[in-house]
Design goal:
about 100 residues, single chain, 2 strands, about 5% strand, elongated, about 55% helix, mainly alpha
């Protein structure tokens, strides 16, 4: 009897979550995961104010990161004139370590 109640509640919670976050489910390649996430929170690509990333900070990869983020924002229909700063964590963390004497 108790197990049946737990299973009913589990089914109810799953349906409720899918009703709220339905766009996160699936693997349609035409829907970028970032667009799915923005949709869940009723945001648009132009609502983004900054992007924090963890990069490799290698010279060879610097150009790649720029192109990748440009492609992502183009694909999610971000307005080109609305600049979004991209902050690389590896550029910040060593400075914090230096300031803390690590």
């Amino acid at each position: 009897m108790r197990l049946a109640g737990v299973k009913r509640e589990d089914t109810h919670q799953e349906k409720e979550a899918l009703a709220i976050y339905w766009i996160l489910k699936g693997s349609d390649p035409s829907i970028v995961p970032l667009r799915r996430t923005l949709t869940v929170w009723a945001l648009t690509p132009d609502d983004l104010g900054v992007v924090s990333i963890h990069g490799t900070s290698t010279g060879a990869n610097e150009g790649n990161k720029t192109h990748i983020w440009s492609d992502v924002f183009t694909q999610i229909s971000h307005t080109p004139s609305n600049a979004i700063p991209v902050v690389g964590a590896l550029l910040v963390i060593p400075m914090v370590d230096l300031l803390l004497g690590r």
